Each structure stands twice: as structure tokens, then as C-alpha cells.
Amino acid sequence: MNVAGVAITDKTCLIMDEVDGMSAGDRGGVGALNALIKKTKFPIICIVNDPNAQKLKPLIASTFALTFKKPDAAASMLFNVHHRYREKMKILVNVMDQLYIPSVKSNEKFSIMTPFDVIDKMLGPYMFSHPSRETLGDKMELYFHDHSFIPLFIQENYLKTHPVKIKNLDGPPQILRQLELMDKAASSISDGDLVDALIHGPEQHWGLMPLHAVCSTIRPASFLYGQGAGYGGPNAMSFPHQNSKQVKLSRQIGDVQIRMRLKVSGNKSVIRQSYLPALFPHIVRPLMDVGASAVEDVIERMDEYYLSREDWDTVVELGVDQNKDVLVLKKISAATKTTLMKKYNMSDHPIPFHKAQDLGKAPKKLGGGPAPDVEDAYDFVDDAPEPVSDDDSKNKSPDDISIDNDKLIKTKKAKGKGKK
To answer: Which CATH number applies to 115-237: 1.20.1070.10, 1.10.10.410, 1.20.272.10, 3.40.50.1110?
Structure first.
């Protein structure tokens, strides 16, 4: 008799299910179960889904591994035929086959395809061909394998095929037909972007996902499906990298525009298109042509427009064509870069703006005592400070105002006398 009042006999058996889901919080976990198995006098059956789990290693030496496999349709049918013979039941073999067709269908598993596999299939020559048996629903299933990335893969690779629809043409008609197909595919991708804006917009119309699948993936592929034009397979999408770089550069241009707005006028686009190319010959080109001797002139010109050392890096990074950052940095020696950094850090520079919290001392924190009641919070204090008259404030001279606490004003210390 156990603590629960259940009698323990020779036929008693303990079945432990989901043993691989045990943790240390389950009254000792697998270790306690292993100790119980070693000293028990009745059989214990442990059921696990993952016998190779790391936490089940203590049970390897104290248990016997018995693997069970779910019977397939043929084995189940053989068992039922034998059972039917014993019960003297007459059922046709065709009827038995029809009974097991739903079970076979329910055991099918959909394989998860990568975006590369989906693109190979969507842009391949057989998906939209006449012998193909793929329905519109089957093509949508390919889109839903990864509905976020597959449209981007289509946009990256839809121009890299030799379309089947132009294989019977030659010369200028072939080129014209290919351009027409490209135009239709590009227009469909643009429509897909509009649908995506409705899906991920403020109202989030998720019911438009099938329409987005057609516009962004299925319809463009139906125009340009065919053999790969020798480009070595589908390319990975470049949108995430380019978008991240665009966001970073836009933020940097915004910082430059905020600093330069005291001297110039214009938004970020004007700064990027007009002012930065005009500044390049004055703050970057001298370091390329002259070297370290032009550092002081460069710093002086940067101070005129309130540009920092990081803004100089932004001007170099945004260079294009002959002023591309890779070409420019190769022409500036390491000694020149070091001189620019040292002299800029050692000298003082004008500040276009200053944070309010940096002025004066930080406010003192209040004590963490209990909060007063509402009535106490509005009690008037009789001992109010006397107001200062205008005559007293006028009598104060400017010399009485201390500037020691102003961090924006630096006072020079008197030099000590040299030793004789």
C-alpha cells in the first residue's frame, strides 16, 4: 500500500510520460527518477520523445531503450485483415483501401523550403508551363513558406532569366518582347508594394495576403519564368543591407545639417547634393594633395561650419565617383590622419548648440520618504520668504555675479613664476 492508498501487487507498473520534459524543479528531476529506478521493486516505463536529449544521460545505464514506430497504412491494413478473418467479417479489399486513404493523407508532412528553393521553382521553366499541374493555391503555398523574404528574392532575381515566352523570337522582336515582359513584371511588383503598405500600415489588412502573393511573387514569375541566363543561381537579396546603409547615412546627413544650419540654409537633400560636394575641395582634398601641412587650414574651415571630426568622416563616406571613400582614404596617409585627429582633439572648437542639462549643477534628488496626503500637499506655509525688492536687485553690480559654475566659459589660470 502506497501513500495514496493504492495497493501495490506483482502486476503494478508505473508509467512516466514526457520524461524528456522534466526539469530540476520537478522534485529532483531526472536524477531523482534515476535513483528511484535503481531501488524500485516494480517496473517503471519512461516515455520520451527525444531519447538523445542531454538531460536523459543518467537513464542510459539504468533503463532499456525500446524504440516504437508508428505503424504505416500497410501494417494497419494487414492487422485489420487478420482481425476481419477472426471475426468472420466480409469486407471487400477495395473498401479497405478507401478507408486508409484519409489516414495516409493525414500523415503527409509539408517540407519547409528555403527562399532559394522557392525562387528556383517559381522562376524555373516548369512552374507555369502547359504540362504543369500546379494550381494557384499551390503557388500561393510557396509564397507562404516565407512571405517576408520571397517577394524580395523575386525582385532581386526576376531579371536574370531567359524567358520561355521569347524563345520562338529572334532579333529586335525578341528584345522588344522581353522589355514588355519586364515592364509588366515591374508594374506587378510595384502593385505588390502598394498592397504591402496596406498590410503593414496602421490598419493592417492581413486579409490582403493572397493578393500580395499574386502581385509580388506569382504574377512577375509568370511573365519571366524560364532558364537561368548563366548567372549561377539566385542571388541573396541585397535590400536589407542597402536599406540599413541608407538609414545610417540619412541619420549622419541629418547631424551634419543640424550643425551647418547656423551658416547655411536648406534641408538634408540640399546639404547632400550641393553643400557637401562644395565642401569636399576645402576639407578633404588638401589632405590628399598637400598632406599634414594642410591640417590647420582644414580644421579652420570645419570650425567655420561647426563640423566635427565625425562629420568629416561622413563627408568622405558620402563621396561618389572620383571622390569615393575607398579611393580617397588610399590617397591620405596614416600620418596625415593621425595629425588631423591629434590637432583636432587638442584645440577648442565652436559649439553650435549645448544641452540644457549640462548647464549648472544637477538638481538634488528628493528623499525617498512617504508621499504626503492630498490635504497636506496643499497646506500653505506661513513662514514664506520675503520678496526681494527691485532696489536690491538693481544695486548688485555685474562683478557680484559668479561665472565659475558656467561650463561654457573657461578661465585662464595665472602662470607661476619660474625658479631662478
So the answer is: 1.20.272.10
CA distance 420 to 417: 9
> CB–CB of 3/9 below 8 Å?
no
Count of beta carbons in the 10 Å neighbourhood of residue 287 = 24
* Domains of the chain, residue spans: 1-68, 73-106, 115-237, 248-346
* C-alpha cell at position 382: 506661513
Residue 64's CB is within 10 A of a number of other CB atoms, namely: 4
**Topology adopted by domain 1-68:** Rossmann fold (3.40.50)
Helices (runs of H) and strands (runs of E) counted in the chain: 19, 4
pLDDT tens-digit series, residues 150-203: 999 998 888 888 899 998 888 899 999 999 999 999 999 999 999 999 999 888
Q: Which of 318, 232, 216, 311 is nearest to 274 (CA)?
A: 318
DSSP state, 227? E
pLDDT at 188: 95
- Judged by average pLDDT, the poorest of 23-27, 82-86, 89-93, 171-175 is 23-27
Contacts with 367 (C-beta within 8 Å, 6 or more apart), sequence order: none
pTM above 0.70, yes or no: no
Band of residue 420 on the pLDDT scale cut at 50, 70, 90: very low
As a whole number of angstroms, the distance between CA 60 and CA 65 comes to 8
3-state secondary structure 37-55: HHHCCCCEEECCCCCCCHH
CB 226 within 8 A of CB 125: yes
